[in-house]
């Protein structure tokens, strides 16, 4: 780690050839193009149950979520979803198909959610999870879900469980 | 525009609490989190034909593409696709459903492609287009398509044209 003695000094400007205001650092000239970030995740199925992970980190520590996280450069969306299941639940998964693409404009996130299944019946908490469990519909702790989009994905999945062909979902109507 | 007299002096480091190396500016301490960027676009249909735009800008100036471009902060993926059709083809479109999610890892892009139709039969080239046309399958200039993913979207769409329910596509097998 370098010792960082300064912070960027951003000003709002429209860079040459651009049509939007961006943060430009008055110290070093860097243009910080902020684009929406991609989260990928999956509903992981096994024996009619669904994987949930209890978060060991903020935000929403202690609440239940699907294995999901920020996509990194150099991987596909499917590989990113598989990596997240491996990191958060020590689970090898197979991606089955796309369930939903959500946008959360307030935090500039696009969430790409897949249906998947366990490649082998083995899982355990990774460093970002306190617990991992497989639950049936009647066992989902709806009051302890970490994020609204986890609820959306679970509820939308329930409407097409067992259906082979369906259009992927977007944000539910408010 | 500010006059920018310096450039960022990035070094590769793992910031505190992170698991990946990032570019950190030695001058100002800024951490440049590079995430994949999202392109949204659409196959816009009208009267059995498909909209193509001839690019007025680099890369691939003079070649044909679908109305598509980088998603901005503050919009949904569907709104971004609608804005691109408005900007590139002065076209008001209605999003029908998701066609495909492609990843281009080499350039760290995720492309979210919709099926759409013209809200009204009116279009013309925007500032980033030289020409806009509606074409039938036999009229597509396959040798003058700007990007491989445009070809993927057109070919995959052709396999499900008229089908109500289908799973969205991903990158075709190499």
Automatic annotation (TrEMBL), chains A, B:
Q: Which family does it belong to?
A: Belongs to the Nudix hydrolase family.
Q: Which cofactor does it need?
A: Mg(2+)
| Organism of this sequence | Aestuariivirga litoralis
What InterPro entries is this protein classified in?
Answer: Nudix_hydrolase, NUDIX_hydrolase-like_dom_sf, NUDIX_hydrolase_CS, NUDIX_hydrolase_dom, Nudix_N
Read off the CDD domains from this record.
NUDIX_Hydrolase
The GO molecular function terms of this record are: hydrolase activity
Q: What is the lineage of its organism?
A: Bacteria, Pseudomonadati, Pseudomonadota, Alphaproteobacteria, Hyphomicrobiales
- List UniProt keywords, sorted A-Z: Hydrolase, Magnesium
Q: Which SUPFAM superfamilies match?
A: Nudix
This protein's record includes keyword Magnesium: yes
* Limits of the Nudix hydrolase domain: 35-158
Domain of life where this protein originates: Bacteria
Question: What is the designated name of this protein?
Answer: NUDIX hydrolase
